[in-house]
Amino acid sequence: MSKYLLILTFILIKVLSDKLFDRLDRKKLSIFLMLCLFVGLFIYKVSDISLLNELILLILTSISIDDFMYMEVYWTDVIFLFIISLIDVIISGKIDLTSLIIPLLFICLAMFTSYMGIIDGLILLAIAMTLTYFDFLSLMLYISLVSGFIALLLILRGKRGEVSFVPFILIGYILQLGLGNFFEVIYEI
Fold first, then answer.
1. 119-131 burial, b if ≥16 CB within 10 A, otherwise e?
2. pLDDT at 185
3. pLDDT in tens, 79-115
4. Which residue of 88, 138, 142, 162 lies most exposed, with the fewest beta carbons within 10 A?
5. Residue 128 to residue 118: CA distance in whole angstroms
6. Kind plus residue range of the DSSP H or E element containing 1
7. Which region holds residue 145: left if phi is over 0, alpha if psi is between -120 and 50, else beta?
8. Could you report the per-residue pLDDT of 69-86, keeping only the tens digit for each?
9. Angle between helices 51-70 and 75-92 (to 10 degrees)
10. DSSP string, 77-119
11. Measured between alpha carbons, how far is 80 from 134 in angstroms, rounded to an integer?
């Protein structure tokens, strides 16, 4: 019961912080609550997810909405994501440093090109802190498959321009939590 109280507290803190920073409107609030309901049902069905993974999932949901609607991500949300990831690392007592290589490469790529934002790399870095190397590779594969499929659809429709990346990170993280490590799933087949 206290687990759900903590999640409701997070949602309340997120709504109040958005109100404080004048980032709250009805449309965003309704989308956020609807996605939280979806994420809550996912968490209920996949019962072996830790509380910290649930919070990371909710933070990614919030960041995804901002990125999709406004094409911007707020630093306060990314800092909160890092805090939750650090708490997860401290509680588990382990971190796979090799899983940090790929997000650091993304950050370097973002610093020298305009293909991706630095924030996207920082979000991947925060998530990588909580995963093993092969789990992170599996996450990147899920992200690549989903974003590649959507990119193909956009190209076929003749649409060009910038696309939000954080929603793909959210979808990849949901697939990672729900399906598990892609390489282990394939190996079992």
1. bbbbbbbbbbbbb
2. 65
3. 889 988 888 888 888 777 887 888 888 888 878 877 7
4. 162
5. 15
6. none
7. alpha
8. 888 888 888 988 998 888
9. 160
10. HHHHHHHHHHHHHHHHT---GGGGHHHHHHHHHHHH-SSS-HH
11. 25
Contact yes or no for 82/59 (Cβ under 8 A): no
- Give how far Cα 13 sits from Cα of 47, 74, 80, 90, 170, Å: 24, 15, 11, 23, 20
Question: What sign results for the dihedral spanned by CA atoms 140, 143, 146, 147?
Answer: negative
What is the DSSP secondary-structure string of 8-66?
A: HHHHHHHHHHHHHTT---HHHHHHHHHHHHHHHHHHHHSTT--HHHHHHHHHHHHHHHH
- The two structure tokens encoding residue 20: 């404080």
Tally of CB atoms within 10 A around 65:
21
Identify whether the C-beta of residue 60 lies closer than 8 Å to the C-beta of residue 81.
yes
- CA angle at 54 for the pair 53 and 57, rounded to the nearest 5°: 85
Question: Cα–Cα distance between 151 and 149 in angstroms, integer?
Answer: 5
Residue with tokens 């903590």: 6
